[in-house]
Structure to design on (511 residues):
């Protein structure tokens, strides 16, 4: 169900607006401003003028990449564009999901509406139609080095426009020609430069980065809520989250996180308490300092991603005012790579943090003796035969280890390729994939920890548990029963993961 429209070409998009369109919660429309439409058409007209004069234009009257030394006759310009999308059809690996694919389409549209890409308005209209009618290219995830942009994955978007390859349509993967036809559309033949304009950009890594950004912010809030629960069920010292501590070293995100946790546990600095342990272990006491690193990176990450999203990131660019063809490297995804390498590091540290908290909760020697070993709730003569969350803790260790392993910067693995023409590349798309995987792993760690903490709330019979512990416990128990004896728990994990990803858990406000 849509609510309003996002007009591409009127102003730069925010991350949130991009994702509204990608989810189908807002329609994609083009600006109705005649000046904007004239600007878009101007680049197309300039390319036609250059062709009429017999002038050399990269990717139009030359080959591409290292083959730019090969002249291509003007009458072959359209064939070159079709060949370009076809020979790049060599993607491998998993397919991007429908949401990821839609985000890619919307991100490519956000770049092309700048008017530097010499692409006809009809192609931009078609991108809007693909989004609004949910005819989405099936894009293999692997095959991009992040410069020249995301050539191989974006070739599948170009292929959709001409009616080739496959698309998602009504929940199935079908031939593009079929999906396009059933949506009431017809293939469009690409003209000079248009395949290159569609393909030679950073829109796959940027789209995935925007999705990762949103999920990471949610994980930060979840981690704060889980820290509050861990403090509650272990009888922790609430003073660790006193705002005066964070005013003394005022990183804004760190302070915000402490404020969340303090509110979640109901901390009142005027109330004097006698904690079981004067100073909790670091994974609880220093949680705002760990989570705060991610939160304090958020403004910088947003700036990098939104600048890339709204920038002209293909090559060559055509100055719509003068017609000058500008050969450069805006397809280089180094800024997105930096954002993703930074983000995956900060998120993996959340996985490590929550894994350490779970170790405390499961061990009576560290949880102040308030909780039994491995959170075994079973009583009676067979209690010793049950193991509670023992294996769940092993799972979180494995997941956290994999997340931490993936924090190696992808940019450090630049490789010379394509006859040494692309001899320095960003690896931004690999960084984005890594980041999404780290987020997936960390979400699972968080969910296992949430299940364990809810078990702790049950063991304590909610005694000493603040509002966040009670709210999350209630939401979890609507979906998963208390563990009163050994049983499989993978179904429990999947149920709460689904609730998290559907935003159905009461994590607390971000304010």
């Amino acid at each position: 169900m849509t609510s309003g429209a996002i007009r591409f070409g009127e102003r730069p998009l925010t991350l949130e607006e991009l994702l509204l369109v990608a989810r189908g919660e807002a329609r994609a429309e083009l600006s109705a401003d005649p000046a904007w439409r004239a600007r878009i058409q101007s680049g197309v007209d300039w390319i036609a003028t250059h062709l009429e004069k017999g002038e050399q234009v990269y990717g139009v009257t030359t080959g591409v990449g290292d083959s730019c030394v090969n002249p291509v006759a003007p009458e072959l310009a359209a064939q070159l564009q079709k060949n370009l999308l076809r020979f790049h059809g060599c993607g491998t690996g998993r397919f991007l999901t429908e949401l990821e694919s839609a985000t890619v389409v919307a991100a490519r549209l956000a770049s092309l509406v700048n008017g530097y890409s010499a692409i006809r308005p009809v192609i931009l209209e078609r991108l809007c139609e693909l989004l609004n009618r949910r005819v989405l290219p099936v894009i293999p995830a692997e095959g991009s080095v992040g410069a020249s942009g995301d050539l191989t994955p974006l070739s599948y978007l170009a292929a959709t426009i001409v009616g080739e390859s496959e698309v998602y349509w009504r929940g199935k993967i079908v031939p593009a020609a079929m999906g396009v036809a059933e949506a009431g559309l017809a293939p469009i033949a690409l003209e000079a430069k248009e395949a290159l304009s569609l393909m030679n950009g950073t829109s796959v890594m940027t789209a995935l980065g925007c999705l990762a950004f949103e999920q990471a912010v949610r994980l930060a809030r979840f981690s704060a809520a889980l820290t509050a629960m861990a403090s509650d069920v272990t009888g922790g010292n609430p003073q660790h989250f006193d705002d005066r501590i964070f005013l003394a070293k005022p990183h804004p995100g760190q302070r915000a996180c402490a404020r969340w946790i303090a509110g979640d546990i109901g901390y009142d600095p005027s109330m004097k308490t006698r904690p079981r342990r004067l100073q909790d272990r670091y994974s609880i006491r220093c949680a705002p300092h760990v989570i705060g690193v991610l939160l304090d990176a958020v403004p910088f990450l947003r700036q990098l991603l939104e600048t890339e999203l709204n920038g002209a990131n293909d090559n060559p660019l055509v100055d719509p005012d003068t017609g000058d063809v500008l050969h450069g490297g805006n397809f280089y995804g180094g800024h997105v790579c930096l954002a993703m390498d930074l983000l995956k590091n900060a998120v993996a540290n959340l996985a490590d943090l929550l894994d350490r908290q779970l170790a405390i909760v499961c061990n009576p020697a560290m949880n102040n003796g308030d909780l039994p070993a491995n959170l075994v709730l079973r009583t009676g003569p067979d209690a010793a035969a049950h193991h509670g969350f023992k294996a769940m803790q092993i799972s979180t260790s494995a997941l956290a280890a994999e997340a931490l392993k993936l924090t190696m910067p992808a940019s450090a693995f630049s490789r010379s390729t394509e006859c040494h023409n692309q001899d320095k590349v960003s690896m931004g798309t690999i960084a984005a994939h890594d980041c999404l995987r780290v987020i997936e792993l960390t979400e699972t760690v968080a969910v296992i920890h949430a299940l364990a903490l809810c078990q702790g709330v049950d063991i304590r019979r909610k005694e000493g548990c603040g509002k966040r512990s009670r709210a999350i416990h209630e939401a979890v128990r609507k979906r998963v029963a208390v563990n009163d004896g050994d049983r499989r728990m993978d179904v429990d994990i999947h149920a709460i993961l689904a609730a998290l990803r559907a935003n159905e858990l009461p994590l607390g406000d971000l304010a």
